[in-house]
């Protein structure tokens, strides 16, 4: 068996490589399945494993350890003597199994590392576009993919969303572009990829409990720019993204392209009044601009907020870097629809707007949501992931008509409101019965809201304390709103 350094192609000799796969969710299964197809010897370790995946591993002849037996560093792993570990990106770098790999000098990859090496399985080898950010990366990924598809390319949005990237690599038709959303967890482990274009949308406090500090988190996000070939896209209104780009080792000839919701300068994508303009991808960019779309076009997507405008501008920069024409981009914008739970209008009743932004799981996302509305009754709380919510409360206290606090870490939120929003009425939902939390929160919010207000579910927290996930939280909110309106 050749060394790992020589395994750079689907057509390399992967046979008999001994690989330990950590985790058996959708991604972990795609890794195990791919490695088995390559002829590797595979051992899967998963404390939580879907029985259906276990059954398929048995059919494939892949060894596995699951449940409590997979905790820590199992004897089966030590005896297996892997030459490579491919981990679920959510596994912390200080976990026992990752520390064991480091102590034994065993390389640790994620599925994206493997996919980059296997990208030539088909004759059509896709170019990669990579996107990260504290907030907005899924929408921007989907938008960029839609724009490139409208330009006549075969495109898949993958990575941290949608179809596992290894399933895209193994698609028999191949793709022209893979638009890859990357989380900070994935970026922590990723070694080296060479994207055609890359974007860091923004950086703010998030996942501090995982990374240990904001500085480490930011530096990890900055890895998105490494080895970019054509265009590295940064946020003109977030100086940290520009600083990280300036410190990145991109390929010679790669251009820095800025985006913002303001007027664009040369080499920027931005807005002049209500027009999305390109001053980056035209010859006379110092004196001219191309019209790409209008606010009216963007309104076809959903509620026009500064956050949405920024995502559209960033996606446009990536698509233009890959050759999409303005007409293609405008067409994609007009037909695009946001995923649910992203500043989604649930209802308007008696002059009160009810907005579901359950996807706002951190203060940065919530900040974008709060600043989009003038008068807000805010439903907030959950698992804060080690982030201080007080600055967010202080920034938006003047627009709060009221706050409804839910979640396991309520006291932290209540303390922040008491300190920085003294005159704002607050209702605490105790959460003794999780099945009734959202019903109670919606009723409480309706008692605080008046005509012209927006009731905004933007929890600034993870959801798993009281809900299955952020989608379940948003669905329960919408159901409770509709039930309330029906009663009235």
Automatic annotation (TrEMBL):
PANTHER family noted in UniProt: UDP-N-ACETYLMURAMOYLALANINE--D-GLUTAMATE LIGASE
Organism: freshwater metagenome
NCBIfam families: murD
Pathway named in the protein's UniProt entry: Cell wall biogenesis; peptidoglycan biosynthesis
Keyword Ligase carried by entry: yes
Molecular-function GO term, any one: UDP-N-acetylmuramoylalanine-D-glutamate ligase activity
Name of one Pfam family that matches: Mur_ligase_C
Main localization, broad class: cytoplasm
GO CC term (a single one): cytoplasm
Name of the protein this chain belongs to: Unannotated protein
Protein keywords: ATP-binding, Cytoplasm, Ligase, Nucleotide-binding
Presence of keyword Cytoplasm: yes
Record domain Mur ligase C-terminal: where: 341-460
Subcellular location per the Swiss-Prot or TrEMBL entry: Cytoplasm
GO biological process terms held by the UniProt record: cell division; peptidoglycan biosynthetic process; regulation of cell shape
Segments forming domain Mur ligase central: 131-318
């Amino acid at each position: 068996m050749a060394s790992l350094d020589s395994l750079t192609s689907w057509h390399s000799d992967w046979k008999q490589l001994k690989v330990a796969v950590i985790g058996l969710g959708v991604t972990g299964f795609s890794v195990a399945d791919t490695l088995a197809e390559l002829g590797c010897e595979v051992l899967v370790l998963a404390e939580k494993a879907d029985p259906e995946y276990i059954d398929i591993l048995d059919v494939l002849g892949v060894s596995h350890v699951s449940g409590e037996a997979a905790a820590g560093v199992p004897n089966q792993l030590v005896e297996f003597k892997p030459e490579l570990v491919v981990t679920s990106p959510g596994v912390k770098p200080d976990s026992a199994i990752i520390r064991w790999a480091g102590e034994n000098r065993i390389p640790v990859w994620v599925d994206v590392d493997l996919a980059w090496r296997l990208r030539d399985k088909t004759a059509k080898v896709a170019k990669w576009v990579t996107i990260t950010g504290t907030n907005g990366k899924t929408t921007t990924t989907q938008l960029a993919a839609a724009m490139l598809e409208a330009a006549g390319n075969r495109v898949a949005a993958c990575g941290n969303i949608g179809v596992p990237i290894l399933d895209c690599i193994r698609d028999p038709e191949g793709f022209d572009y893979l638009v890859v959303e990357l989380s900070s967890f994935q970026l922590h482990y990723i070694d080296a990829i060479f994207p055609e274009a890359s974007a860091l949308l923004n950086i703010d406090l998030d996942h501090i409990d995982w990374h240990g500090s904001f500085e480490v988190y930011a530096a990890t996000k900055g890895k998105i720019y490494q080895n970019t070939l054509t265009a590295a896209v940064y946020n003109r209104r977030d100086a940290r993204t520009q600083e990280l780009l300036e410190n990145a080792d991109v390929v010679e000839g790669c251009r820095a392209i800025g985006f913002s919701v303001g007027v664009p300068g040369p080499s920027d994508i931005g807005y002049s009044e209500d027009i999305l303009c390109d001053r980056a991808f035209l010859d006379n960019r110092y004196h001219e601009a191309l019209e790409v779309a209008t606010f009216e076009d963007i309104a076809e997507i959903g509620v026009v907020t500064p956050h949405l405008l920024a995502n559209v501008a960033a996606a446009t920069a990536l698509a233009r870097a890959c050759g999409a024409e303005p007409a293609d981009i405008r067409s994609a914008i007009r037909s695009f629809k946001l995923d649910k739970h992203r500043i989604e209008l649930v209802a308007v009743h008696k002059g009160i707007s009810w907005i579901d932004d359950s996807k706002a799981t951190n203060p940065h996302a919530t900040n974008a949501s709060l600043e989009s509305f003038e008068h807000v009754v805010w439903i907030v709380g959950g698992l804060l992931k080690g982030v201080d919510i007080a600055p967010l409360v202080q920034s938006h206290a003047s627009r709060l008509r009221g706050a409804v606090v839910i979640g396991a870490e309520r006291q932290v939120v209540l303390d922040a409101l008491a300190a920085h929003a003294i005159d704002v009425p607050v209702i605490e939902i105790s959460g003794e019965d999780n099945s009734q939390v959202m019903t109670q929160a919606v009723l409480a919010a309706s008692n605080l809201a008046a005509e012209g207000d927006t009731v905004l579910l933007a929890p600034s927290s993870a959801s798993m304390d009281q809900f299955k996930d952020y989608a379940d939280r948003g669905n329960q909110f919408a159901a409770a709103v509709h039930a309330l309106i029906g009663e009235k």
